[in-house]
Amino acid sequence: MSTAGEVPLVPELSIVVPVFKEGEAVDPVLRALTHAVATSHEILVVYDVDEDPTVPVIERLHAELPAIRGLRNDMGRGVLNAMKAGIAASRGDFVLISMADGSDEPHVVNAMVELAREGADVVAASRYMRGGRQEGGPPLKRLMSRTAGLTLHWFGGVRTHDPTNNFKIYSRRMLDATSIESEAGFELALELTVKATLAGRRVAEVPTTWRDRTAGQSNFRLRKWLPHYLRWYWVAMRGRFRVRGQARSA
Fold it and tell me: What does CATH list as the number for 13-241?
């Protein structure tokens, strides 16, 4: 086990945190992650441009907490490319995506890591399973997210109640074997969860409370990104019906 001041050569967990003009608001979020996670880890804070006001905060934190380091996203601007750049640069056996706005709960990460160690290729922090909650956020966005998650679980065979939450751990073996096709926004979590389900990989979950950001401005664009979410929703549903049809004809 490493301490906050140590940087392992190959950490067990890589934490990817995309940022966009978070500035000083990211400081408590990164500190909370650093001190909550018990396993050896690195935190890759991914930004689009050197002029982002978050960069000096990352550099200051790195001097104190070397596990935190900045990474410029050279794959193209936007949160999706930032996540992809972080995954590509990560070194851990497991990769966690976490947001910079304080909406995710750092204390559940250790339980997620345990499930990953036990063989889960995707471990979701779930707002919609027993014990999970969602606080704040636009009512329409909350309703659509909950409806999509629960219908995919009940009828689509997805083994988490919350496939759209990006607060997830992925195994290195799955990431290495899976091509990413996402094109916009935060659809990556849904894509990887659906692909893991259709491939017969183990998907696990732990309950979490998600809290809408209290500082800064959300970068979520529901109208723009909804078609991308619907794409993976129907991929999951068609895959489920195909499996059922094959079972009946066998």
Answer: 3.90.550.10
